[in-house]
Every structure is written in C-alpha cells, then in structure tokens.
Design goal:
Helices cover about 40% and strands about 15% of the residues. It contains 11 helices and 14 strands. The strands form 4 sheets. A 7-stranded parallel β-sheet has the order 3-2-1-4-5-6-11, sandwiched between helices.
Length: about 350
C-alpha cells in the first residue's frame, strides 16, 4: 500500500523555516539512508518540495534494501526526477560514481533485530557511509543519533550530561554511542564536518503504529476504536512534531557547529498515562465517539521511572528555533494521516 504525500501545510512550514539555507544545497548531491523511514522520508519529501519551488538542481541518492518496496510505498518520491534509488544493504552498497556533497546517516534497524546483529550492522553500515564521505570530501555528514546515548538522570537531559560508557553492557544506547564515536573519530581525522542530532520522541504522519512507540501505538488503538492500552504510565516523555523535527535536522546539517551534538525534541514533558488520556480525549472530539483508556495499576517502582526528555537551549538559542505545533495539534495531525492511510487507494 502506497503512503499519501505529507500535509502540504507541513511542507510549507519546513520550506519557509529553513529559508535561505536551502541555497546551500543548490547544485549539490546528497546521499541519504533511511529514505523510506520516518526521519528519512520527511527529509526527502521536504527537500523535493523545496527543489520544486526553487529549482535547486539538487540530486538525491536514496539507499534502499528493497527499491521495489520503496517505489510501492512512496511512488511520488521514488519517481521524482531528482531521486536515484540505490539498491543494497547499508553494509556493502556500491558507492555512487558521482561526488556526494552531503551524507545523511538516518538508517534504523528492524525492530526485531537482535542486539549483537544490530551492533555489527550499525558498525559496518556507518563505516561504509564514512568511506563515501571521505572519498568525496563531503561538505557535511549528518548523523541522526538518539537521546538513548545518555545515562538516565531522572531529569531533562542536556548535551553535557554523561553518556553511556562504551564498556557498559550491550544495549541499544551503547550501540548508538559507539556509532557517534566511530563518526567522530574518522570525521575529525579527515576534516569532514560532522553534525550530530540526538533525537528524542516524536509524533506526526508516518510514525509507525505497530512498533515500540507509545504515541503510535495509542493512535492505532484509538483509530481501531479500542481501549488505549498502557503498560506503564509513569515514565515522562515529550513529543516533537515531525515538521519541527525536519526543520531542526536541516538547520543542524546546514547551519550547526561541527562535532557539537544537538538535542532534537520537545522540552515539554508529559507522562505516558497523561499522553494516553490526551489522545483519548482528542479522539473523542475528532470522531464524536468514546474511546476508553485502560491503565494497569502502577507499582511504587513504576512511579520513579526515568525522564526521557531533552533540554533544547543549545539548538533554540543558536539557530533561533522553537516548537510550532502543540501536543493536541500533533495528535490531531497524526490521527488524521493515520486514518487516511487506512483507506484503500
């Protein structure tokens, strides 16, 4: 099933907020991983929207393990004249012949990938992307990292907080920390400007509804008319809307300082339980029908759960950025897109 284009008003917002920085991509070539995923498809579609508006002459090589699936899923992107699909796994894809001015590392593993396999996959894939960037002396390398690299603090996390030790037990966070170190070491030695975006929880069109994302799972329950199921309502999270996310990622690549990490996320915290209640309320208003919310009783240990929320002063002050979409708007927009995606084409 093909996915609908992203909302035009969101693409307009990204186009306007990135503004004159689009000119830095005029006549440039970009190598993008994860182009059919959540982060990658927003980056790709917003870039193509801007290409159509400005005639930048930009070219995008989008890596895909399954180009046919990419074309079936996002035909309006795969068929764009500026896009060249590159088939193969990230670990061993054939390097394109032309020079890549920018490389965007937004690859994500399959949700069921075992940690040992994930570690090898990330290491090999990152090495291949770095090889490409070094070969072409790329002007910028954007690493879409994650807030999972931080050690839990039970308070909002700043870029100065301690990271998971490289000698810690194997975990998703440690693997992503290793990727950061891998990129830092080579990019510094080779003079490749590395831009690091540490993403936190997000919301918006194309957010997976069947993965390990509470926001997406709650939206799925709501559109199916089922009770919203909450396993642990105590943890604090925050949710940045995908158009804001995309603006921030482009700004980091085109304007951010090299080798300095930037947190990317909302600094407005909410418990998982409160999120479920908000989604249930917004859904009732949207469809005029009741969507009950069920919660399991919380244990004392649950009530002391970690806070996975970023401090964002660095990016907001340096680049004059701010959230533009409220949580209720994010819910409504995600809900509307998810419902439209369920309709037959």
């Amino acid at each position: 099933m093909s996915l609908s284009p992203l909302p035009k008003e969101d693409l307009e917002a990204v186009f306007c907020q990135v503004g004159k920085d689009w000119e830095k991509l005029r006549g440039k070539s970009i190598f993008l991983t994860g182009g059919s995923g959540f982060f990658g498809s927003w980056l790709l579609e917003s870039l193509l929207f801007s290409e159509d508006r400005l005639g930048l002459g930009v070219k995008v090589w989008a890596l895909s393990r399954d180009p046919k699936r990419f074309r079936d899923r996002l035909p309006h992107l795969a068929g764009h004249i500026a896009v060249q699909l590159v088939g193969g796994g990230v670990e061993g894809f054939a390097l394109p012949r032309g020079k890549m001015n920018f490389v965007i590392h937004s690859m994500v593993p399959d949700s069921e990938m075992p940690l040992l396999k994930m570690e090898t996959w990330f290491s090999a894939g990152t090495a291949r992307l770095l090889e490409l960037a070094v070969r072409d002396k790329s002007e910028g390398f954007l690493l879409c990292s994650t807030g999972a690299v931080y050690q839990p603090q039970n308070r909002p996390l700043s870029e100065e907080d301690p990271l998971i030790p490289l000698a810690a037990p194997l975990s998703y966070g440690r693997i992503r920390r290793q990727v950061e170190e891998q990129c830092l070491e080579l990019c510094k030695s080779q003079g490749i400007p590395l831009k690091i975006a540490r993403g936190f929880a997000v919301a918006g069109p194309r957010l997976p509804l069947d993965a390990n994302f509470a926001f997406g799972n709650f939206i799925r329950d709501a559109i199916q008319g089922e009770p919203i199921k909450v396993k642990n309502g105590a943890p604090f999270r925050s949710y940045l809307y995908s158009a804001d996310l995309t603006i921030w990622l482009w700004k980091i690549l085109l304007q951010g300082r090299a080798f300095i990490p930037y947190n990317v996320g909302s600094d407005t915290k909410i418990t998982i339980s409160m999120l479920a209640q908000r989604i249930a309320t917004v859904t009732r208003l949207a469809n005029n029908s009741g969507v009950p919310e069920t919660r399991e009783p919380l244990s004392d240990s649950d009530k002391a759960s970690a806070v996975y929320v970023p401090q964002t002063q660095r990016i907001t002050s340096e680049m004059n950025l701010a959230k533009t979409t409220s949580l209720d708007e994010s819910i409504n927009k995600t809900l509307y897109y998810a419902r439209s995606a369920r309709k037959p084409n």
